[in-house]
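Schema walk-through. Below, the input block comes first and the output block second. Nothing else is stored per chain. Lengths vary across the set, and this one has 169 residues.
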Amino acid sequence: MNTRNIKLAGALLFGILISTAVNSQSHRQGGEAYGHQSARLDLTEEQQTEITTLRTAHYKTITPLKNKMVELKARERTLLSEESVDIKAVNKTIDEQTDLTNKMRKLQVEQEVAVKTILTDEQVMKMQQRRQFARRDGFHGMSGHRGAGGQGHAGGKGMGRGYRGYRGI
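--- output ---
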């Protein structure tokens, strides 16, 4: 009887751990983030529709740029791993990454401004307060990770290096 209770308790504990891991994983990957934010902003149906339309268009624009960034990072790693490093090619790849990052950032700002035009002043204020709170508590971007803002833990080798991802609305 005692063994049965231990097995039952272990199975229950395992189930709780799995459900917690799945729940935290969805938040780290931006799961439900928009829906959760829209509920807190008390968006009307019309606002939700407009923002969804904006987000869809923005996603279609930004996705190829994010994919290009991944390609450029891979190219940079390839160039740096060669026996004889072509510094001009590496610098060119870095310049392309910088240009792409600037372009993506400008698109992000355009997106944020477009969303703000849909929101009421009170909703904008709530959104800004939530962002300030999140930044103050060490949350960065949609990834939901806490800590050094993508800089790794205690400067560990290779931790948080490179492109930290896109933080859209």
